[in-house]
Amino acid sequence: MSPFVRVAVMLLALTAGSIWLRPHASAALDPGVRFEEIATRAGCSHLHSPVELSPRFANIMPWLVSVGAAVAGADFDGDGRTDFYCTNSGRGQPNALYRNRGDGTFEDVAAPAGVACGNPEGGCVHAVFGDIDNDGDADLFVAKWGEANQLFLNRGDGTFSDDTGRAGVGGWGYANAATFVDYDRDGWLDLLVGNYFADSLADASTGKMQRSNLWDPVTTRVMHNTFTHADNGGRTLLYHNLGNGHFTDVAVECGLLFRGWTLAAGAADLNNDGWPDLYLANDFGPDELYLNTGATENPPRFERVVDTSGHPGIGDDWWKGMNVDFGDVDGNGFLDVYVTNILARRYKTDEGNMLWLNLADPKGGPGGRSFWNAARASGADDGGWGWGAKFLDANNDGLLDIFALNGFVSGDPEHTYWYDLQEMVTQTKNNAADTADWPPMGNRDLSGYEPSRLFVQLADGEDAAREVAGEQGGARHVPHFAEVAAAAGITDVLNGRGVAVNDFDADGALDLFVANQSAPSLLYHSLLKTGGPGRHWLGLSLAGRPDEPNTVDGRRFASTASAVGTRVEVTVGPRCLVQEVSGGTGFASQSELRLHFGLGTVDRPERMVVRWPSGRVQTFEGPAVAACVDGYARLVEGTPLEPGQGASAAAKGMPAATRGDTP
Amino acid sequence: MSASEPAAEPVRRARRRNLTLFAAGAAIFAVITVIAVRRGGLLDLPAAPPGVTAESAGLANLNELTTRGRALEALASGQRSDGTPADSALVQTAAGLAAIRRDDSEHGLAMMRTGLGLAPCDLVLGNGYRMAVLQLRRANLAGAARRQTLAGQMPAWLEHEPIATLERLHAEHPCRETALQLALAWVDELILFGALEIKAPANVESVHQLTELLRQEPMYVPALFGRGLNYLNRPARLLWREGIKTAPDAASHDLGLCVAIGRRVGGAPPQLVATLALALGDAFAKEGHPERARSWWQIAGNTSRDPALTDSIRRRFGWRDDEVLDRLETELASRMLDLDHPLSDLSFMWR
Questions:
Q1: What does the mean pLDDT of chain A come to?
Q2: Which listed site, A201, A267, B130, B329, has its alpha carbon 20 to 30 Å from A418?
């Protein structure tokens, strides 16, 4: 063979090899969905204003006031359409309640509805809807910094009454996270609240504990005691709903003792034992995963997951958890966990978001589960400085995608705070807990102007057999994502915080309501043409029957009216799609209660199994399920499916005959 | 140099060749062994206890059990039995079973109870009673589900069966067979009701009773098998203090002992041996030893050509190491849902 031929063959082989090895160019990928931003046109552009703390914190004020924009989606007025509640954190600035008019537009009715708040002392930072009195309409909990949290009871006529005092949930502190969960399955929604800053601090001179008021501080030592193992954050509260309008805090009795810097909370059954487990995403320290012992203990408590090496949390989680969401992304029947984190490769911070695949634990760990971070292997790790994120099937192809918000502080892009931050973190002479030790932030930028991420799961991910080596050896099968936000029309660079996944126009294509920090909210309307080949879907509106408890082995269980915790499994060919009704999961976010399954090419799912918290299981097969495709069905516990009734006023709660039992 | 020296050279050469061949063979054997162990794992079977007999193992009269099982079925189906003299217990129990099949369930169950009372330690009749109750309770639950009622309904005469009857029977006639039936009645409960809140205490109760029985009859294979299955079918994902008390290899210990005793006393039909081997493989898989599990699944496959068993083994060989535990849990859960062939049905011993 002549040298020329040899060189030619080598070049050919190298070229072919590089083509074969080169990863997919996601920019060229068709996302399968497009969005248009319509908030202003639709009348739901809500300008968020941040809290304004004491001037003593002026050197890092942009950091301290970087959260507070939240959005919660729910049908508060019972017309079958999703409405939105947006927080405002500045003094005197009202929250907004956008009522869905049904014609693609919204009107702000917060003031007449009695839920504008206005922040007379502190600032609203989060809100979640939940039907706490089982009367079939959504009540509202508003979490605040520096002001008592508030619980508003829905009167059923479009207005709310402040029921905080009677309910006993007006804790004062720095609540950043809240979710409704019926942790003991008694048919009444309980409330989990996670706080960020500690609510009280020791006076430097006297050592006496006193309220930590960031508007009038006694000290500047208000920050986390370390950047990686902080345990001086706010308390976790678990308000047990007694069913008579009153709540009592049972966090200590239930084992929720850690004082992390909680940014987000979520509840879902992670070990498939029928009992909701809790996840708290914490800043500056380990996240907390608590498994519910209800299957074998009465009353239930929570057991904190700590691995055999003493490592708390779900795994090696890098200590900066900003968000949590649950979805069975790999189709193994167990809910996986998505936690946002920080990735800024330019500044040598390459941690990234975490996609914890929920796997069996052959070592017999707590709950028999182990979690393996597949984010990098699957292509869903680069979320920038991440905040709220949600699983959703954006293109109705039957595979769960991920929408992730990001961006911390947008300042002068020519001057970054990253170097100052890194120097402070690495210098032992500095004390992270004292804001006075922090270098002035000024107008410096810190991971601002970041575009949101839409990670679309690739259909060929399964065929491509993405086997990667796990930490303990052995191949692992992971899903495969491509980032397509820009191609899908999501192009803003605002600092997103909360996102409510919803279908406000009930067309079967999921839309995104985004709350931005110190900026207007956005409504990304999906332009997906649903119902066609490859884009089938199935929506489900569920209502439990708390008035019909179920006795299991002498224990009385019931579902809540809003069916929170109900698990639905839809069998589509060889796959089983699993979702759970959530009482508001993740950072500054609550998606609508309705479930949405993308079905792809399948227009006749074989089976639907509904597992109610009462312990009842309903199975529907064949035509009963097929009739629900490409529409929202309604299901009241113990009754047949009602195709087409899940997006109407009739979808609200329980049958009328059983309503009105408010204590 | 002697005259014999030239002749010795070829002999030495032949010896060297033989030695080389032997060494090569040994090396190949060693390599194959290492590969086999790596691929298949060690069998890890416990030693059978000394002094074990077919009688102490409960495997002495399998042929008699087979005959009695056939006679019960024949009489209940209105056929003539094969000439084996039918005692009144058998006749009464068969008549009850026939009545149940005619939808005269309450009366039929009462007749079966009477029959069982005449021979309380009869393994076949006791099993027949339990299975009849299981199917009746199953039918009631299925009916309630079909009617989309919010609460499962059970008639009063079935509400506390078979546990109430078997508790009374065991109190009046304590023998290893009544103890076994009572322990398995708790397994029937966890088969019928999917809720972990029922499964967990039923499992604990069954294990306690079987442990008590094994304290008195440590080599009784049906009890060992029952307890091993209880351990095996405990959901790995369950969070309970009871689990902490149990040795991680409890299932493989009990099931391995069953296999070891079965091998020692011999005489077990292939289907029974294969069932034990499959269960032992499952136990190893659940304990995080998929290679060892595959060895036992292979042994099960080699022992019996039963199509259902072959299918289940084929499925198991399709599982990757990282998913084997979840897939096994799903497989065990679906096996438990197969109420046409209940997991607690002892008739596999004599079929």
A1: 90
A2: A201
